[in-house]
Amino acid sequence: MPLPTQEQIARGPWWLTSGVGLVVGFLVSITSVGSGSLIIASLVFLYPATPLKKLVGSDIFHALFLVGVSAIGHAGLGTINYKLLAGLLVGSVPGVWIGSKLSASFPETVLRPMLATTLLYLGLKLL
User: Fold this and answer.
1) Alpha-carbon distance 35 to 12, whole Å?
2) In contact, 35 and 22? CB cutoff 8 Å
3) pLDDT tens column, 45-100
4) Chain-centre distance for alpha carbon 41
5) CB 88 within 8 A of CB 81
6) What is the pTM of this model?
7) End-to-end CA distance of the chain
8) Which 3 state secondary structure label does DSSP give 48?
9) Which sequence spans correspond to the domains of the chain?
């Protein structure tokens, strides 16, 4: 049996990726635990050969759909505080725009420790 190519290793098992998506989608819809922090941690383990910038970009694009579906569900249930939402968006939208522009210029050796530290801190705060 031939050894897998680097492209096949970087692609990972589709069923495991879909399984992680199922679990995270469920957790996000009932707890609002950040999809980004759960997915990115999983993707780093599943796809260690993939550059972090591609994992982050894929995660953010995925979150667009994941959070959109969840938001529609919560809007239908009437569980959204629109005043709170507006305040969050005023700060978050510029923050995301600046962060995405800056992340493209950071080397992998800077991004990985930043991500690991952030996830460790968030994990400890959840305990």
Assistant:
1) 20
2) no
3) 888 888 888 888 888 888 888 778 888 888 999 999 999 989 988 998 898 889 88
4) 8
5) no
6) 0.65
7) 45
8) coil
9) 6-126
* 3-state class (DSSP) for residue 28: helix
Q: Please name the residues in contact with 60: beta carbons below 8 A apart, sequence gap of 6 or more.
A: 36, 100
**Do 67 and 28 touch, CB atoms closer than 8 A?**
yes
Enumerate the H helices of 1-127 as residue ranges.
6-11, 14-31, 35-46, 52-77, 82-103, 108-126
Query: Whole-angstrom Cα distance, residue 5 to residue 82?
Result: 49
**What tokens were used for 69?**
């579906």
Asked if 75 and 29 touch (Cβ cutoff 8 Å), the reply is no
Q: At what angle do helices 82-103 and 52-77 cross, to 10 degrees?
A: 170
Residue 78: both structure tokens together: 């009437």
Q: How far is CA 70 from CA 13, 31, 37, 107, 116, in A?
A: 26, 11, 16, 33, 27
d(CA 43, CA 41): 6
